[in-house]
Structure formats: C-alpha cells, structure tokens
Amino acid sequence: MSTSPQMTKHIHQGRNVRRFREMLGIKQERLAFELGEEWSQKRVSLLEQKEVIEQDILDQVAKILNVPSEAIKNFDEETAIHNIQNNYDNSVIHAGPTVNFQCTFNPVEKWIQAMEENKSLYERLLKSEQEKVQLLQKQLDQGLKNT
After folding, report:
1. Mean pLDDT, rounded, for 62-66
2. How much is the pTM?
3. Which of 30, 48, 111, 124 is the most buried (most CB within 10 A)?
4. Tens-place pLDDT, residues 108-133
C-alpha cells in the first residue's frame, strides 16, 4: 500500500469528540447531561463511535466542550503529533547556545567571603559582650563599695 500526499485522510469525528472530552476531563455521563434529557451515557458512547456526526449535534457538543466545531471536524492526531515533534526539534536546534550557562563568579570565593564576614560579625559580637561584662563588673564593684 503506497502512501501519497494525494490520499485523503479519513477523520473520525466521534473519536475526536472523545479525545477533546477526555482532554477536558469530562465524562460521558456529564456530556449526556449537558446535551439534554434524551441523551444518556450509552448514546454518547454510540456518538463517539460514529465517523461522521450530524452538524447540529456536532455544534451542540462543540459548544459544551467549548471548542470550535471545526476543530472536532478537522482534528488529525497524526498531523498534530507531527507538528509538535517538528516544533520541539526546531526549538532544540535553535536553543543550542542559550542552554550553556557559564557562571561569572567563583562560588568558592563567595563562600570564603561569607565565612570572613561571619568571622568579623562574631568578633564584633564578642567585643560587645566583653564591654557589657566590664560595665556590669564596674557597676557591681561600685555597688559593693557603697554598701
């Protein structure tokens, strides 16, 4: 069997309804409820098996699924996958140089700098605490002399 560009693709509208419904997380029961009283889960299942769906029903389903009826009529999974794959391949090819990230600083130097800052802070804190102790000692000595 040869595949030529002139071969027409048969788009299964019922399968497309199912695909869109499932992508949106809608169950057959919910779609049947939205379509009206004469609809049931079984009838929606039968609808999804039809290759061609009547235009008025297709319009109702499209409105409920919030997609254009043309999307259901013309959606071809093979073409969509082909387009996604090509777009992904092209984005990877064109994204080459931007993927390489070069760090503009030395992380070890930054870490050593932070350690030095911590050391300086601890030394100032220690000096401050020693000054407090000296002041308290002075007050204690003066308090003992006064008594």
Report:
1. 91
2. 0.50
3. 48
4. 888 999 999 999 999 999 999 999 99
- Locate all alpha helices (DSSP H) within 2-106, ordered by sequence: 13-23, 28-35, 41-49, 55-65, 69-74, 77-94, 96-99
Read off the pLDDT of residues 45-57 as tens digits, 9 standing for 90 and up: 999 999 899 999 9
Locus of tokens 């409105």: 63
Residue for token pair 């000692």? 137
Distance from the first to the final alpha carbon of the chain: 116
Please give the single-letter amino acid code of residue 99. V
Q: Which residues contact 16 (CB under 8 A, 6 or more apart)?
A: 71, 72, 73, 75
Give the CA distances from residue 32 to residues 35, 55, 145, in Å, rounded to whole numbers and listed in that order: 5, 17, 97
**DSSP secondary structure code for residue 37 in this structure:** T
Q: Which tokens hold the place of 27?
A: 């169950």
